[in-house]
Structures are given as structure tokens and as C-alpha cells.
């Protein structure tokens, strides 16, 4: 997956804001490893490709998985936008409802606090720390 991104690519969603192929590829590898370790039995993915040309593209995807931190099931609904340069992804933005995701992934805490910047900030910090640990251990 990392090879699909330009060396200086940018990825952004409600949880991650990443720069560079190493960070972006590391995120995908970390998420795939989590599924392999704790959720292979329930992993599913539906997707559709939207419009695309040499410069831009879009996709809709719906992963279903067990969130490794809590063991709770998540069905995320994501709309993705891509910008391409030289045949590679230069910019990738995933849009999804953080509140909807947090209600599923975190349960009652997500239901009550998932719409607040406080919980979003905490989840972002934890995700970034997890990614940095993952990258350090997979050099």
C-alpha cells in the first residue's frame, strides 16, 4: 500500500494527519496487523470507486472490524478523496463521522463524549503515539 503514495504524500482523516510515505504506509501496516492479530474472523470491506482521472479520484468504503483497543465491533462509513501526481497518491483525505465511529469503538464514552474536541484530541494523541511506537519497532 505504501508504494501507492508519493514520497511526500499527505493523509488526513478525523484521527490521523500524516505526512510522507513512511508514516502513511506505517499507518496502513499497523491497522492491518491489528486486524490480523485480533479481528481476522470478522474483517469485511465493501467499496466502490467513484470518478477518477489523472489528477483526482474518489472512493466510498465501508470496513467492518473489531477495534483492537476495546474489542468492540465497528462499521465505519468513509468517503475518500484523492489527488494524484505522477501516477501516485499525493493527497488522501478520508471523511467519516468521528462521533458515529467513537460510539461503536468506545461504547458509552463515545456516545456521551464522541462529539467533543476533548475525546477527539485524546484519540488522535493515542493513535499518533501508537503509530510512532509501531514505526520505531518496524524500521
From TrEMBL:
Domain of life: Bacteria
InterPro entries registered for this protein in UniProt: NTF2-like_dom_sf, SnoaL-like
Residue ranges annotated for the SnoaL-like domain, each copy included: 1-92
One Pfam assignment: SnoaL_2
SUPFAM superfamilies referenced in this protein's UniProt entry, alphabetically: NTF2-like
Designated name of the protein: Nuclear transport factor 2 family protein
Source organism (scientific name): Pseudomarimonas arenosa
Amino acid at each position: 500500500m505504501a508504494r501507492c503514495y508519493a514520497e511526500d504524500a499527505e493523509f488526513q482523516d478525523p484521527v490521523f494527519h500524516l505526512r510522507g510515505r513512511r508514516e502513511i504506509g506505517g499507518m496502513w501496516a499497523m491497522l492491518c496487523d491489528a486486524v490480523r492479530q485480533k479481528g481476522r474472523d470478522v474483517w469485511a470491506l465493501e467499496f466502490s470507486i467513484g470518478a477518477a482521472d489523472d489528477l483526482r479520484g474518489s472512493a466510498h468504503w465501508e470496513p467492518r472490524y473489531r477495534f483492537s483497543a476495546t474489542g468492540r465491533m465497528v462499521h465505519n462509513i468513509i468517503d475518500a478523496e484523492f489527488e494524484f501526481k505522477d501516477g501516485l497518491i499525493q493527497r488522501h483525505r478520508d471523511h467519516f463521522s468521528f462521533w458515529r465511529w467513537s460510539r461503536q469503538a468506545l461504547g458509552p464514552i463515545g456516545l456521551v463524549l464522541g462529539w467533543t474536541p476533548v475525546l477527539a484530541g485524546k484519540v488522535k494523541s493515542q493513535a499518533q503515539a501508537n503509530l510512532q511506537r509501531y514505526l520505531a519497532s518496524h524500521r
